[in-house]
């Protein structure tokens, strides 16, 4: 907890004898000025400490965190999804971590990752779309990413971070293409070499 100027002054005064503050000298002003400097120094320190954590960093410092980890911000990417990508410094080529990367970009629903090493995956009701889109071919080192239509909820437009563009404002029924472009960029950067994938937009639930 940051100390106020008066609290710093009290601490400083406790270090010297009381006669230092008699009416015959002007040491009170010196101690108050020193206390003011210490108060500001503590505020600067606590702010810097807050910015050192990815989850609490502001946009400017978040960009620095990303630069240190060679992860640039995508066009229009909000702080929330950028922070998730920066934090993901473990093995990002496995399906759970790929899902974390994709989900951070979404404004609607969560993704489903299907690995193609087994045709049985496609019999799952949550993953199946239709026979014209999902085939039953077993293909190693390949996966499919399924996401719902990325149309922001109406209430999201009052949030400065959620607002996307004039085309999405009030009543748009088309997904924002920037979201899909950012998903592709993020997955391409993190997936293992030699793997291929496809990104499919699925109808919304219900």
List the helices and strands and how they pair.
Layout: H1 5-13, H2 27-51, H3 59-68, H4 79-87, H5 95-105, E1 112-115, E2 142-148, H6 177-190, E3 196-202
Parallel strand pairs: 2-3
Antiparallel strand pairs: 1-2
Helix pairs in contact: 1-2, 3-4, 4-5, 5-6
Can you offer a commentary on this structure?
This protein is mostly helical. It folds into 2 domains: 5-51; 90-202, no CATH class. Helices cover 38% and strands 9% of the residues. The protein has 6 helices and 3 strands. A 3-stranded mixed sheet has the order 1-2-3, with helices on one face. α6 links the parallel β2 and β3 (196-202). α1 (5-13) crosses α2 (27-51), α3 runs parallel beside α4 (79-87) and α5 packs antiparallel against α6. The longest helix has 25 residues, at 27-51. The two termini are 49 Å apart. The model is unreliable at 119-124, 127-133 and 166-171 (pLDDT under 50).
């Amino acid at each position: 907890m940051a100390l106020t100027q008066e609290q710093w002054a009290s601490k400083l005064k406790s270090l010297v004898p009381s006669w230092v503050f008699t009416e015959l000298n002007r040491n009170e002003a010196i101690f108050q000025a020193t206390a003011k400097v210490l108060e500001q120094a503590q505020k600067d320190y606590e702010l810097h400490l807050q910015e050192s954590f990815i989850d609490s960093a502001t946009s400017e410092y978040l960009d620095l965190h990303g630069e240190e980890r060679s992860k640039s911000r995508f066009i229009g990417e909000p702080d929330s999804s950028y922070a998730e990508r920066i934090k993901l410094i473990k093995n990002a080529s496995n399906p759970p971590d790929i899902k974390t990367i994709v989900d951070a970009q979404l404004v609607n629903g969560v993704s489903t990752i299907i690995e193609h090493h087994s045709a049985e995956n496609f019999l799952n009701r949550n993953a199946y779309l239709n026979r014209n889109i999902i085939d039953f071919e077993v293909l190693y080192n390949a996966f499919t990413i399924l996401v719902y239509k990325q149309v922001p909820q109406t209430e999201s437009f009052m949030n400065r971070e959620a607002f996307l563009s004039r085309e999405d404002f009030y009543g748009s029924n088309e997904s924002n293409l920037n979201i899909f472009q950012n998903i592709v960029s993020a997955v391409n950067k993190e997936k293992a070499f030699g793997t291929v994938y496809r990104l499919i937009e699925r109808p919304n639930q219900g």
